[in-house]
Write a structure and sequence with these properties.
Layout (H helix, E strand, L loop, with lengths): L2 E2 L23 E4 L4 E8 L3 H9 L8 E8 L13 E9 L38 E7 L5 E8 L31 H12 L4 H16 L3 H20 L8 H11 L4 E5 L8 E4 L2 H11 L3 E8 L8 E7 L5 E9 L4 H18 L7 E4 L7 H7 L3 E3 L2 H14 L3 H20 L3 H11 L4 H11 L3 H10 L5 H18 L11 H25 L3 H8 L3 H6 L6 E4 L2 E8 L7 E5 L7 E2 L2 H4 L5 H10 L9 H15 L6 H25 L3 H7 L17 H15 L1
Parallel strand pairs: 1-2, 10-13, 13-14
Antiparallel strand pairs: 2-3, 3-7, 4-5, 5-6, 6-7, 8-9, 9-12, 10-11, 11-12, 15-16, 16-17, 17-18
Helix pairs in contact: 2-3, 2-4, 2-15, 3-4, 6-7, 7-8, 9-10, 10-11, 15-16
Keywords: Metal-binding, Zinc, Zinc-finger
Protein name: SWIM-type domain-containing protein
């Protein structure tokens, strides 16, 4: 907004509405570069209508009282400036300014009435609101009033909303009568509201949860109804825009939600912006499913559309679905910055579980720094092909017209990747690709400009790191698709360049969605939510396809068919079966996704003649072969390697035996007996005198 130094350049505004407010006027910065205010000129006769409009703010209804006023008589000034006042009045919100809420603590309401004139409709609630403005009746033009807004938000000095429906911390005198609401019930209610479930259903589930603690009562039901309605109004009226400036808005959010932030770094000349978010529930899931298991990264979401790219750390829950346990918003890929937030994240997990460690870290971007992962988590690193496969398939379908060309081109792209294990020169495979499909100018332009400069780096990473399975790739892709649906809705396109909007969407709608999914699965409630959650990955949907629905021809290994379960007359055709670069003609696959038909066909092609191994299996065999071919020396290092190998072999045998048995008792009986420590044993073996003395002491305590 341009700063205007002359009052004559500001136009007079006279809105047509009977009552008007701040949003109905166009505000101008008036003053100098060092000191300026937001001002507007209106007719002096309409000042009362402006005040009435400001009092009728639906988010913060209030009244304004005159905190300070001055007057001058006409002709008292011989020389005056254009903005000199004839009358000066400072209007202040009547919910202030007694308690300013320093530190952002809870502000309890008063239980008695103050005899203060011109107070708000609730005089017992003085919440330290700093909203105030000045009305100047101009000395040079008495028919006009200059409005000077100093603070238009109804917040305290800590930056928190301090009254109205958006005030979450206000406590009234009747708080003792409200029934007990644990965090689980509150999170369940908030999640249902965020997901758009009707208020009647939300109230029903809320009352069921409360009755587990305080029984059925009419008063409890009434208070619960009021609580759900108020919480719904707060959520509907809440906004991500805590300040007009995005950087100031995210700073206010960070001050309010310190428990949900594990790393925060403001942008400066030397440092780039970085925000790490992990709620308490996400930390619990990180420790629960990440300990001695795998952690994956969806590392470059929104790199073209968002202001800052989003990196998500994922764990695999009890159903092997990808569960977000941390979000990192930053453009920095520097080793020092990545290592910084990774170490803080590990320390948070070890503060809950001292022995916390992970067994593997899956990355999906060849440009991602792997040294911080090895230095911090000290675990093997795997590579996921889902990102490169999805990008290639989407552009093949988008830029090539006929399905015949699409499947042949996608197969040829797969051969480029397979060439790193087949002993074929990669440059020759790329040359063949460009020659055979030179007529597909749209795709070749995309491939040569986007992928050809970095294809060497990607293929080198794929060859050097073991590859993740199709189940892991499908789970990560399912999370990516869900995140894309939640964020890239058409109604939010104007907010994509604001970080506060991204944080608001992640911590409200997306967090609530995954919380409710896990709660529905573990508590066996919300059957519709549970069924959608279970069937959210292509791997699970593929497991529901019977083997009899898959048609494999031993004479023609180029194509396979999968009959539809809904309509047996419909069959999906899968080209290049047995490969990660198999092409299916279903609608889900044509959108670039890994579909259930491809997964089912690939699982059926395993250990069959005429079909090659999957890339993950080829990568695993390559690593074993490379270890076998290394020269061994007769040293202690060989003994240690042999001991670790035998230990891993025993663990694999136990896992295979456990997964293949129907009766767990047979395995338990075969386990070796482990003696506990002496403190954990019974009194057998303790001298009789000591045992008798212990018994007498315990009897004395009982008396």
């Amino acid at each position: 907004m341009e700063i205007i130094e002359s009052l004559e350049e500001i136009r007079v505004q006279n809105p047509q509405a009977e009552d008007f407010s701040y949003s109905d006027l166009t505000w101008t910065k008036f003053g100098t570069t060092e000191h300026h205010d937001e001002v507007a000129l209106i007719p002096y006769a309409r000042v009362e209508e402006f005040i009435i409009g400001e009092c009728s703010n639906p988010e913060c209804p209030t009244r304004f009282h005159i905190e300070r006023g001055r007057k001058r008589s006409r002709g008292s000034l011989r020389e005056y400036k254009p903005d000199e006042y004839l009358e000066y009045r400072l209007y202040w919100c009547s919910f202030g300014p007694e308690n300013y809420g320093e530190g952002g603590g809870v502000l309890p309401s008063r239980k008695y009435r103050l005899n203060t004139r011109n107070r708000a409709a609730r005089p017992q609630s003085m919440r330290g609101c700093t909203c105030h403005f000045v009305v100047k009746r101009l000395y040079a033009r008495p028919s006009l009033a200059l409005l000077v807004y100093t603070e238009r938000r109804h917040v305290n000095k800590a930056g928190f909303v301090c009254h109205g429906p958006l005030d979450r911390d206000a406590i009234g005198p009747g708080a003792k009568k409200i029934p007990y609401i644990c965090n689980e019930i509150q999170q369940q209610t908030m999640s249902m509201i965020y997901l758009g479930i009707p208020e009647e259903n939300v109230l029903e589930k809320h009352i069921e949860g409360i009755q587990r603690y305080c029984g059925s009562d009419a008063t409890v039901d009434t208070l619960a109804s009021q609580y759900v309605h108020k919480l719904g109004m707060i959520i509907k009226r809440s906004t991500h825009e805590l300040d007009l400036d995005d950087q100031a808005s995210i700073k206010i959010w960070a001050e309010r939600n310190k428990k949900s932030i594990f790393s925060y770094q403001e942008s400066s000349e030397t440092d780039q912006f970085m925000l790490g978010i992990q709620t308490e529930w996400q930390l619990q899931q990180f420790v629960r499913f990440g300990h001695c298991s795998l952690v994956a990264a969806d590392s470059t979401f929104g790199i073209k559309r968002l202001k800052y790219p989003l990196c998500t750390l994922l764990v695999f829950d009890s159903r092997h679905h990808a569960l977000p346990v941390a979000w990192i918003i930053s453009r920095s890929n520097l080793k020092s910055d990545v290592e910084k937030w990774m170490k803080i994240l590990l320390q948070r997990a070890q503060s809950v579980e001292p022995g916390f460690r992970i067994n593997g870290f899956i990355i999906d971007d060849a440009a991602m720094e792997i040294d911080p992962i090895r230095d911090t988590f000290r675990c093997p690193i795997l590579f996921s092909l889902w990102r490169i496969r999805r990008s290639w398939l989407r552009n093949v379908v988008k830029k090539c017209d006929t399905i015949e060309v699409q499947r042949e081109l996608f197969k040829c792209l797969g051969e480029v990747v397979y060439s790193i294990w087949d002993g074929v020169d990669t440059s020759k495979a790329l040359e063949r690709l460009t020659l055979d499909f030179s007529d597909q100018t749209a795709f070749m332009h995309y491939f040569t400009s986007t992928w050809l400069p970095k294809i060497g780096m990607w293929l080198s990473t794929i060859k050097s790191l073991p590859l993740a399975s199709q189940e892991a790739c499908g789970a990560i892709e399912a999370y990516h698709v869900k995140l894309k649906v939640k964020l890239f809705d058409d109604t939010h396109l104007n907010a994509l360049q604001r970080v506060d909007w991204l944080v608001h969407k992640l911590t409200t709608e997306l967090h609530s969605s995954y919380w409710l999914d896990r709660y529905a699965d573990e508590s066996d409630s919300f059957q519709n939510v549970k069924e959608e959650y279970i069937a959210s990955t292509s791997w699970h949907r593929a497991s529901e396809i019977p083997d009899s629905a898959v048609i494999l021809d031993s004479n023609n290994t180029v194509v396979a068919k999968v009959r539809s379960q809904r309509d047996t007359n419909v069959a999906r055709v899968v080209w290049n079966p047995g490969s990660e670069f198999a092409f299916c003609d279903c609608a889900w696959s044509l959108q670039g996704n890994l579909c259930k038909h491809v997964i089912k066909v690939n699982t059926m092609c395993e250990n069959r003649e005429g079909y090659g191994d999957s890339m993950s299996l080829r990568s695993f065999k390559e690593k074993l072969t490379s270890v076998k071919m290394k020269p061994m020396d007769d040293s202690i290092a060989l003994d240690i390697s042999m001991a670790l190998t035998l230990q891993m072999f025993d663990q694999i045998k136990q896992l295979v035996k456990l997964s293949g048995t129907d009766d767990i008792s047979n395995i338990v009986n075969d386990l070796p007996v482990k003696w506990g420590c002496k403190k954990g044993r019974t009194t057998v073996g303790i001298p009789a005198s000591i045992a008798a003395l212990t018994k007498k002491r315990s009897q004395k305590r009982k008396r």
